[in-house]
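for the recovery benchmark. tokens below, seq after
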């Protein structure tokens, strides 16, 4: 296993000490490994959201190119359109 030296703030040092003292973790390495696991999980979620967003943008651009768009004014026109679309999408057959 690799060995690294890290610098912690006072708050981080206190948190680390507390987590070990109460028995949640056995040592600082366990705390760090858990933290890295959480960062890795969060990064994976971020990448998945980014991919979904890119897919949605690509789909929207295809709709624009194919002419599948709606021109709306402002205010009530947009609200009316959204209510109509919501009603269409929630209709039970």
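predicted aa per position
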């Amino acid at each position: 296993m690799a060995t690294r030296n890290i610098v912690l703030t006072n708050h981080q040092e206190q948190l680390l000490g507390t987590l070990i003292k109460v028995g949640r973790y056995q040592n600082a390495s366990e705390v760090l490994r858990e933290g890295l696991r959480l960062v890795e999980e969060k990064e994976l979620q971020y990448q998945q959201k980014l991919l979904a967003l890119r897919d949605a943008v690509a789909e929207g651009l295809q709709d624009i190119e194919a002419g599948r768009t709606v021109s709306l004014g402002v205010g009530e026109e947009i609200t009316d359109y959204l209510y109509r679309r919501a009603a269409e999408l929630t209709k039970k057959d």
